[in-house]
Amino acid sequence: MTWELITESYQNWRGMTEAGGRRIKRALFVDATSVRFLANDEIERLERLTLLKDYLEDKVDAIEQ
Question: How far apart, in whole angstroms, are the C-alpha atoms of residue 56 and residue 50?
C-alpha cells in the first residue's frame, strides 16, 4: 500500500465528497432501437411523480417552442 502511494498516481475526490457528490462508475448499454419519444399518456402518468414533474414540464415546453 505505501509503495503504491509513491509510485502510482491517484485522484483526489475530496472536493466532490465535501460537496456531497458521489462517483459512480458503471457501464450502461442501451439498445438504440428501443429509444423513442413518450406518448402523451405516458408523460401525464410520469408527471404525477414529484421528482419528474418540473423536469418533464420544462422539456415539453422546450419541445413545443
Answer: 10
